[in-house]
Amino acid sequence: MKILIAQxxxxxxxxxxxxxxxxxxxxxxxxxxxxxxxxxxKEGAPxxxxxxxxxxxxxxxxxxxxxRKHTETPYVYILLTMAQGQEQEMLEGMKAGVDDFLMKPxxxxxxxxxxxxxxxxxxxxxxxxxxxxAIGYQTTHDPLTGLYNRTAILDSLLRxxxxxxxxxxHVGLILAEVDHFKSINDTYGHQVGDAVLREAARRVRSIVxxxxxxxRCGGEEFxxxxxxxxxxNALAQAERLRTSLVGESMDISEWGKFTSAKxxxxxxxxxxxxxxxxxxxxxxxxxxxxETALARARTAGHNRAEVAAxxxxx
Length: 314
Hints:
Layout: E1 2-6, H1 10-22, E2 26-30, H2 33-41, E3 48-52, H3 60-69, E4 77-83, H4 90-96, E5 100-104, H5 108-140, H6 150-167, E6 171-178, H7 181-188, H8 190-207, E7 213-216, E8 221-227, H9 231-246, E9 250-251, E10 265-266, E11 270-277, H10 283-299, E12 305-307
Parallel strand pairs: 1-2, 1-3, 3-4, 4-5, 11-12
Antiparallel strand pairs: 6-8, 6-11, 7-8, 9-10
């Protein structure tokens, strides 16, 4: 574990550095509070800091207060070393955010106990952070394709419309639907249908720009937000998506029983609706327009993109 030692007294610094290094820890050493705070702001900073109550520049409590202000950074476990007779200041230290205390002269056994406690608490916090991120991912992403789910993609669209109003720019919206998807499920089974959706999602992700946002709106529909695009540019993006799907058949042989390798190759196409907005406040008119355009693409024979007309924005 990487540990910061910030101690004013050379004897204490030396004892802590030697002992912790012997136990296999990576040690960063300073005698100045300001330098300690700089070390804790660096990328890959120590997660455990052993700070002296009395440090030049910034004392240990002042460093602790600065650390606790930055809640967006990984948690730093702070041990404060204090001289005997300063026990009454522990309450102030707890208010500053200190996790535990070490009385001088520092005892190696007490140091080991506290370092082990710190390590266990940091490990538990990392497990909680990982679990929290996993829960957050599950609530915003479609489990089959890994794309944003309907709620998350619509939230993104609402934020994008707010940005468009602020900046006076455009945003394009593309609604892409896998053609004849029910027939795929009925003919080959749902495992093949799921494989088709996963591959379609992969191809969409590979084509869109880094700042475009993609979500699955349920069933076989994908919603793509293309910032900075008017209707003409959004249509060009939609055509790129359509041709990416048409250009290469999908190998679904591992997901079903086929009599030949050729039968395990499935040609899949997209129908797409396209719309663009400027200064629009609500998502509903834009969604209605793009859905209407998609319906026209279906009616016209599939495997095509249609742009929403002005009358479609209701």
